[in-house]
Design a protein that fits this description.
This protein is of the alpha/beta class and about 240 residues long. It has 5 helices and 18 strands. Helix 2 packs parallel to helix 4.
């Protein structure tokens, strides 16, 4: 686990796109985009229909590793409003088992404003507590320090003349934007002006490695970060399609 301090709270980066909150024994993830493949299949673009199972299995593995008793899902839980009812049977079984065993909070997103908790869990527009706000999309005028998703931040890195893309967290003084957790999600450059406008002021992109965070001040001068000493990237790097 890689420690990450935000708004006087200790979190741990436990995967490329997940946070563990020890004080609440909670796991935080954003942008699962369940049933994205079936959405595209319905529009004529055929993709392997296993994205929901893979995403939920990744989430189940993290729950087991951390021992979390609460899960906060920070919006765009499904890729579209019909995704919840369309969830394929095995994924629905996986999800129902997890929501029955844990406190599960669905925060609504712009892709799934009508999520109803068909497979368990409670549904809220945002969650506030412990002096924090958890919501889907960052608000530049938030009255509380906030953790959000929505933008799927990534950084592009050059290591030994090979370009790779890594999911990252974007952290400012009052804003922490999480990367997308879903296996079929794309991403937005962490230095994109839209993200910078939301975070405001000094900010940094953060990647969690095996035992430490790697930080890149924002904004970047270029689209690609050149890594000279790649020993800190001992873990496998995500591909650009991640």
């Amino acid at each position: 686990m890689v420690p990450l301090l935000f708004a006087h709270h200790r979190f741990d980066i436990v995967a490329p796109a997940a946070l563990y909150w020890p004080a609440r024994n909670a796991l935080l993830v954003a942008d699962l985009h369940l049933e994205k493949a079936s959405f595209f299949a319905g529009h004529g673009q055929m993709l392997p229909p296993y994205d929901s199972q893979a995403t939920l299995q990744d989430l189940a593995d993290l729950i087991r590793v951390t021992g979390a008793q609460t899960v906060f899902c920070l919006g765009d839980n499904y890729h579209d409003d019909g995704g919840e009812a369309r969830l394929e049977p095995e994924a629905a079984r996986q999800l129902s088992a997890m929501t029955a065993a844990l406190e599960w909070v669905w925060i609504t997103g712009n892709h799934d404003r009508d999520v109803a908790g068909l497979w368990g869990g409670s549904v809220v527009d945002e969650w506030t507590g412990e002096g924090l706000a958890l919501r889907h999309q960052a608000s530049a005028n938030s009255q509380l320090p906030e953790i959000s998703g929505h933008y799927h931040p990534k950084v592009r890195i050059a290591v030994r003349n090979r370009h790779v893309s890594r999911r990252c967290f974007v952290k400012g003084r009052h804003h922490l934007i999480m990367p997308a957790f879903g296996v079929l999600t794309g991403g937005m450059a962490a230095h994109d002006p839209v993200i910078e406008a939301c975070v405001g002021g000094p900010a940094e992109a953060i990647i969690g490695l095996k035992d430490k965070p790697v930080r890149f001040p924002l904004p970047f001068a270029d689209r690609t970060i050149e890594i000279v000493d790649d020993r800190q990237f001992a873990l496998p790097l995500a591909t650009t399609g991640q």
